[in-house]
Amino acid sequence: MIVDMFLFALCIVTIVNIARCLSSLRSLLYVMRQAHPLLYQQVDGRGFFSVQGNFAKQIRLYHYLKCREYQQHHDEIFTAKCDRVRYLFALNVALVAITFVTAVMM
Known about the structure:
mainly alpha, transmembrane
């Protein structure tokens, strides 16, 4: 019983953090449109969340954040949003992995 409640709570926390990450990503794309229009076009900012979204272009944004290419950018708001999305993505990967391992072990 307690184990099930723990797993349920862990799933809720994971879902809430995924929603936070998606919200921050949407906010980053909005700021990116003004701060870095070329990157916005490269990652298909307008169609990023659509069904027709290009996965290769989405991976381009992942590599941009992973390699911290944004650190040389002049806009502080843009770099702060990039840091936040990068942090939330790492947190979500860890939470999903822990949730999966916990679910398998129980």
